[in-house]
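[Solved] Which block belongs to which protein?

Original post:
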Amino acid sequence: MTNDWIKTRLKNVALFRELSDEELDSIVKISQVRVYKPRTFVFMQGEPLERVFFIQSGTVKIYKTDISGKEQIVSILQTGEMFPHAGFFRRGSYPAHAEVMEEATLIVIPIAEFEQTLICYPELCMKLFRVMGEKIIDLQNRLEEQILHNTYEQIILLLLRLTKTNAVLQGRFHRLTTHFTNRELANMIGTSRETISRTLSQLKRKGLIDIDDNGYYLIDAERLEKEIFL
């Protein structure tokens, strides 16, 4: 890929959107493009933390595993997003696995060189802090969901969160843009696949969710929100 191709794509990333050509060129110079096939790993939990990644196309699953091999999905990332966010503020190893779900084209930036760029352009550093702040708020909200809501409510809140991060509006429904298995949904909130299956069936009977011909979930976010906040 040419530098012009990388520059055009980086302009669409929220973190870089308002940078001048000079500032953006400094990022392009240290960037590379890599293509990953489905079911391959961008990195694995515990590997040396050396690079950050920006998704130009495709879907990447971020998840942790414990000593017994149990999976906890942290997030499902798509075009325009970066990972790992902790990469700029810690040393050592990657805190989670990054596995490609749908073929992904990623722009790769070495952390050491990016940190030098942040020093040269403080406004970029401030933008990064804002992005990190949004992630911290998201994690706080997830913790509150675990503490304050039962499993049925947690599943509804998960679906509502996915309508904001992994969906497009289609009539009165939000259509999820990623295929999620019941196991993957269960691993996002630490419940069982059977509980997810039972709850989704219940929500479908109520007309709050549906599945289109291609197997993507359709979610009536407005009515689903009323289901939990009545």
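(Second protein starts here: sequence line, then its structure tokens.)
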Amino acid sequence: MKVALYARVSTEKQIENYSIPVQKERIYALCKSKGWTDVVEYIDGGYSGSNLNRPALIKLQEDIEQGLINAVVVYRLDRLSRSQRDTIYLIEDKFLPHNVEFISISETIDTSTPFGRAMIGIMSVFAQLERETITERLKSGRLKMVKDEGLWAGGAATTPYGYTRLERGQLVVNENERHHVRRIFEEYVSLKSYIKVQQKLEKEGFKPIPKHRILTLLKNRLYLGEVSFAGEWHKGSHEALITEDLFNAVQTVFEQSTRKNFGKIKNNVFRRKIICGECGETYLSYMNREKKSGNKYYYMICKNRKVAPEGGCKCTNRNLRRTTLEEEIFTRIMNLEAGDYQAPPQTKKPEDIQPQLEKLDNKISKLIDLYLESGLSKEHYETKLADYNKQKEELLSKSKESNYEQTAMEQMIQDGIPNLFECDLETQTSIIDLFIDHIIVHPTDLEIIWKK
């Protein structure tokens, strides 16, 4: 009997009853009582339960499909997922078809019994309800913070350039960056290119800022002394860094730039990024003219469909209207939210702490054995267990803090993705290059491979 131990926490600083060591302790105790000794651990530390985009869970599904797992055990149902749809999908489409039993200790759910299978749907409803209730409360709290108190509701990990973030989202001006922000707005009005602005100010000795952040900065009403929530702007409690006249002048330049580029062939936006899902060749851009109206239209076609490879057959994959392609890709990028893009784990050297974690796991296992078999006092057991768990959490926390670096994609999602339909060609190309590695054209849909 090969058993998969699955444990998850959404943050490293999880409450005691939900910490990974506690989950593992309870699961190992259950496995021991059933005589299961072949246990494989799948641990997702710091991942939300609102979706299935978790490294260990993905690996678990792959192993199940290969017939390597006979049972999956979790501490609580919401450790597997907080979405009713995802829970039912995993149970009915992954576990049961491969004869994998699913056991949740806290809810006493065991899918090897008819009652256990019936309870899955009921319990997953409450798990989803809990998640949605928490989300609604957080939204209400943030709206009050923004609308009534004028506080910034951005993430704690980032602060708008030009300000320092105090407790509860209070922003105060960073005097070392105040002049830089104002110069960026002023120079853009005259140079009309954020890349030229960046180059000029860097030559003058100003701190380098990524090009995409300059673009976001120039469109951000935060610098007018406003704060936003859910797309609506309100009077902020922080000091404005620019005047409304200067901000409006910058937006006028943006509008003029958009009109100037309207109707141009935008071949560079998706250069070498469109790949045929049938033959693997790249898609090329072409222009055609309708015979009756004389109107031009632009489309993309697989290279092997336009010109058959030597000794081979023409590809039969579909052509793409350029306007249709842009509409779908631009919309999907603009609709990205912080929870949608899951950056890959960025721990640079996991082996540095792995030996220490394994030693602590061994100590915990021995402690459990002593408690269950040798009459170890409950007080001594709980004290030692708490000490071991604290050591593990400190190791994981230090590792995450020292090695995690926010990606450029996460930063732009945090700052706000601009309206790509209103951007000039230069801006569109820069954002596409930032977010997308390549796009695979299938007969019925488009698959985006995001950059990591």
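Accepted answer:
You had them paired correctly. Confirming on the second one: The longest strand covers residues 2-9.
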